[in-house]
Amino acid sequence: MHRIAIKIDGIERRKKSTGLFHIVAGLFLFVNAAGHYKDSQYENFLTLLPVFLVGVGSVVYGLFRNRIDPKANFNHLVRAAQFLMFFILGVMLLKSEVEFQNLVLLLWAVICIVLLFTERKIFHDAFLFFNNNSITIPGYFSNKVIPWAVIENIIVRQDFVTIYYPNNRFMQYEMLSEINDSEIKKINLFCQQQIHQKQAT
Question: Which of 14, 25, 39, 108 has the smallest CB count inside 10 Å?
Fold first, then answer.
């Protein structure tokens, strides 16, 4: 089996928008916690303190994530804290009569848990896998498995991988890391062997 780290445009755009989602989630948390604190006649501050802290922390993290956490090692922890605070705040407000606000907060909790799992995927390197049966192309939600039988040719170069399909269709992916010439020759030879073998059967 061989693998190559590649750039997926949709995933790269999603990485760049992560900070904005943290800022929006943090502001929404803080504003709703402040509103609840006011409605409760400025009581239960210690109960709401974790919500305020996660709200402020989320905004700071979103603004400076590229500096303080360039590899996104703590991204899932921040997202998990947001989920927990949205859920707790939503449950706290269940005692009030603001049903719409409760639903919005619980919806945000669901959004955060979905982001938690999808962002864990996008912040890992996306690898194009080659095995004896197929090629696996990484995707945003799920991977795409392409059997060798539907591939006409593959060319691996220092900068791009190009997959050719019938009817003059092709897909090209930019490589994220350099591969030495000998490894490129091995991958190209492996691909050609699999293509010819599947075409012959």
Answer: 39
